[in-house]
User: Fold these one by one.
Assistant:
Number 1:
Amino acid sequence: MKSLNGCLALWRKELTVYFATPIFYITGFFFLVLAGYFFYTNVLYYSIISLQAAQQASNPQVAAQLNPTQMVYRPLFAVLAIVLLFLVPLLTMRLLAEEKRSGTAELLFTYPISDWAVILGKFLAALLVYLIFLAFTASYSLALTLVTRLDWGAIGAGYLGLILLGASALALGLFASSLTENQIVAGVVGFALLLLFWIIGWVQELGGGGLGKAFQYLSLLDHYDNFTKGVIDTRDLVYCLSFIFFFLFLTKRQLESRRWRA
Amino acid sequence: MAIMIETQDLTKYYGPTLAIDRLNFEVAAGEIVGFLGPNGAGKTTTLKVLAGFLSPTAGTARINGFDVVNESLKVRASLGYLPENVSLYPDLTVTQLLEFAARAKGVEAKQEKSEIQRVTEACGLEEVRRTMVAALSKGYRQRLGLAQALLNQPPLLILDEPTIGLDPSQIVEIRTLIKNLEGSHTVVLSSHILPEVSQLCHRVIIINRGQIVASDTPENLSRQHGHGSRVMLAVRGPEAKVAATLQAVAGVAQVVPQGDGRFLVQAGGDQELRPQLARTVVDQGWELLELKVHEFSLEDVFLNLVTEEES
């Protein structure tokens, strides 16, 4: 109960800081501009293609491909994942690095809050900020339902993928922030690590065997791809949740070592 | 009396550098204890270890009966800590910061408002409640640091240089505030302002190069480490002759004329010089205007101890 209170206290403090500083507004603005742009062009492209298909004698195979999930949402989810790659390190780089640089860590770590409560409070605050960004994109789908029928199941799976991917990236970013006192370094390290987990699956395409398969399993992108197809596989869920836990655990270890090395 | 702090061979290395070396001391509940020492002596390191921010390399420390390493959360729940040059979140307002600190320290939701009100008043922060921490003056920041330490009424307060950077009237206020905590709280503070320590503290622990060189009440320290007693005399008579006569009294090591017929007489040992000096002056037919023991100040003791160590 006590550690829940500590976690909650930190969560509220982090949100207050997010809303008081420009980083939230700037990243949110550009995320939504990009997401809106891609959504709009996808819809435009989809409407042109379907118009053409309707004019020509319809080929049943082409018609089957012509649905908003395939034409609008899959490409949108794919591109949002890339936007995320840039966005998440900006949200997380401050979280622990700034506490160390400014010296506020000295107060924070002498309050009766466990390291886990600190980590979870910060992680959940960043997650909420990310969810707020995503929630704005839901308005696009609502607008689209006015003109066409949507497969809500597939879209839901895509969003679940986007949430899990974002949470994984945030956990990794938080870990990067625990490594250094410098926000910029934390941002760069976070970005580089994310990129690594992004492209690690490509090794398999160069001819992999067992090792290639293992690398592919480690790739964030591979697991995310299933969600965008509308498929929720427990293997992907387990992967994302273990990824999040693993990096939060590394962050915890990193915080513990501070007390000894200092 | 209950023991609030107890350390055994407390040692801390920063890499290869020894910061504190086998410290053994106890602090009783309700005591106000001052840590005194030159810069780099290990005061801040000691306080950081006690506050649970750093782990000791060797040795143990127990606070309120809890071990600082194994029962860190319980230790941290029993103390309020004001770090040296306190850093506070610049993007929060004073009230937001105190709300965060209150929740983090486990103040019950029902008492949160009244507890924040209490420390705000105690530290004179009413005027800046809505000000961003980034915009606070050094004095207000220091008071805010003290306010957050007082939240939830912890039995132990650890204050690292509590009056640093304050103007004289603020210093007096903060000292009064600390003095008022006497009895209800145990206070451990560090300072290099010596009169502050002698005014506030029941006991002084002097550290130099990571080791305790003395630990006693300010009065005892003056007596024991003052190197002989000193007497101040005021005599109406021919100055040079008086000085020479006083110098001739048995046991006098040195006579320093202070002008206006005042003389500072330094004894060679611990013997009582006053009766002999009074008799000598009266026998000479001079008028004895004043005769008193001149206490060694803590500055003298401190300098003596630290230079003794070094020589």
Note: The two ends of chain B are 38 Å apart (CA to CA).
Number 2:
Amino acid sequence: MSKRYTGLALAILALLLWSVVYPNVSVVAGSFAHGLRDWRAFLSSPADHEALTNTLIISVASVMASLAIGVPLAFLLTRFEFRGRRLLSVFATLPAALPPLVGVIAFLFLYGESGVVTRGVQQLFGLSRPPWTLTGVWAIVFVHAYTMYVYVFLFVSAGLERYDSSLDEAATGLGASSALTLRRVTLPLLTPAIVGSMLLVFMSALGSFSAPYVFGGGTRVLSTQILVSKLNDSMGMAYVETSVLALTAVAALFALRWIERRRDYAMAGKGRATRIVVQSRGWRVAAPIIAAMAVTFLVLPHAMVVLVSFARDGTWTTQVLPPQYTLDNFRHLATDPDLMQPITNSVSMAAIATAANVVFGLLAAYLLVLTRAPGKKLLGLLVALPWAIPATAIALGLSATFDRNSLASARMLLVGTFWILPFAYFIRNIPLVTNAVEGSLRQMDPTIEDAARGLGASWWLAMRRVVLPAARPGLVAGAMLASVAAVGEFVASIVLYTHANRPISMEILSQLRGLSFGTAAAYSVLLIALVLAITTGARWAEARMA
Amino acid sequence: MSDASGLRLIGVSRRYEGTGRGVEELSLDVRAGELLALIGASGSGKTTTLRMIAGYEPPDGGRIALVDAAGAERDITREPPQRRGFGMVFQHYALFPHMPVLENVAFGLEARGVSRAERRQRAAQALAGVGLADYGSRAVQALSGGEQQRVALARALVIEPHVLLLDEPLSNLDPMLRQTTRDELREMLHRLRITVVFVTHDQEDAFAVADRVAMLCAGRLEQVGTPEALYHAPASHVVARFVGRGALAPARAEGDAALVTIGGVTQRAPLGAAAAGAPQVAVLRPETLAVVDATEPDAWRGTVQTRRFAGDHFVYRVGNIAGASEPLEVMADHGRVAEGDAVGVRLRPHPIALVAAPGAR
């Protein structure tokens, strides 16, 4: 019995060591290929110095901005009742439904130098020049705040839903003002949620690629520097930059975990908090107006992409809004095989990667939750690793490792083939799917599997009839998250793609460069539609299981 | 605490849309320094009442006031909980899980801007007062249920509250602990001579701790009085049912006698308290009844369904009585009757209370 676990555990560990650890070790080793020469070059390069500083500033500022939006919004929507609350809470998570590159493009269409809002303001006030430019560090932070506050909002909302409101009542009953209650009781108890979401935002901002790449306007960050070095064929430099990026990520992970330590308290009472109905006259008028403005701001990027997708390519030049509309963009996608290719690629690569993730996630979660397999601690660590390492770093590791066939060094030629992208997506999504399945299995009583085995069921039968049904909600949720991430993936793709397997995101980028805004937007709409279809399908499957 | 305040509720209402629950026009006086229990079934509005007194729920109508020793009222209906200066012990205690015991107890003083040294000293004193002198540095998660309850009590008392409010203070304790805690609680609260309102769904807890008991039903006050009054002179069949054991049977008063009729057989006993309303029913407590031989004339005949040994006495549950709507519980000092035996039931010469029958006006 335990032998079977051991075999399975060893196989899974070996796969992780080979696909996750080995490439990253190759990168670090590669950075020392010329002794310390490349590291010295990195340290003395003003460009890299700037990139590192910018990356850190952007990451910290993104965390601050996301907290500043997400925490108050979560309090507002869980603690207060006002007209427009329901609508706002529906739309509050909308930015998360936008694939990263699509969000960036939408912001370009809206707030870029020739964006709708920019030109609108310019015309309204008769300015000779655009009132702002969407470049530099703060433009990147602006986009990050829009997409990443959702993490903070969701984590803190979930924390507040579970929050035992009698703790706040106890504090106020003892004479504490609202401010003191918030500072001494509510916020300290929400620390796990807040720190968890800060970590998520920091990691996403650290590895963010789309925003700096599309409108950095010459703003260097580490992730884009890596690509530049690779394209310049200074691989040593690329390895150093990748190592620095990955080490920063891991350091941040440990630092925040340390802050979070021993801060998770089970809540004893009922979480039920009665929403305070907004009473004052002024707020009763102001609240719906502010909520409507917030909803507009949240919906605008999506609406903009949809609008531009109907714009005739090449006609939108200096006008505020695109002047001519057509269905041609979508017609071309459906009829031109060359334009159809990226869609087929993305869908099939996402499907392959997700299928692999589901099988792997089930086995890994099974080992982690229900067995006493040896090496569980290591397994847990390795499974989480791809989440901690930015996608650019993972991609570079793959390109450094799987560039030739060599049995002696356990290498395979994947770079330049179709398979490199599904492989990269698979690795990237290992933590996502495994975590989701783990969550489901943890709700299952481990003695149930023992009971099934005790009744004479074979390992295979127990797996199929007991473990698999228990894991199914997690599998569905994990598959949904993984396929959504894979179908719109951009960051690893730009490092590893070839013309033959170019995904939708790369095609959007090249259409944008060719100034075919309409076609780029049509692809974006298609991507949003795919994401919607996947999430709706998953919801439907979840509902059917329940 | 000699400056104990009384509490006055005048026509207080609180309705929850669509639930039919809440409190309707509740008027109630809590005297300075008394221990008042609010009892009632779940959904009767007792917790809502407590939360309105504490200031966590605003009443839809009515007034709440503090009454000082001179009888002067101070309206606190719209005062936020922070400013009421009440102490509250929550059902699940609501101890702050991220603070050690002493910090929990000192929190109310911190909120009042008391210096660090003084609040440490006063919190330590309060802890000693509940018998947890050495517990200051412990984590609240490491405490037993009874200890948590005492920490919550110390935390509420350290601010020297006008009024102490307790929400189901005993419901989270195991039965053994409950007995002793109940006695300790009463002893401690009496020593402090503080005004206390506490909510419980358990009539025994209320009787053991309270000076007076207020019973709520469907958001209305059914009766308020001493435990003896509620037991011996219930104001309604609802109170009679909720407080103590016993069956109801059709009856009428005749002079200073109560005439109880079941299945055409009428028996007579001294009349105790009689509530207004007609038709009336008698409250047949187990101690007002006796088992007799099945052949005895003018007894209600039935069979023993269960026989329960209760230490110094037995309780028989006698069913299948012709014309009775429910079995009668009968107390006896002997165990000679077995389950299944045919017996007769007679009224003892023990005062019997009458209340208006269900559905009467």
Note: The mean pLDDT of chain B is 91.
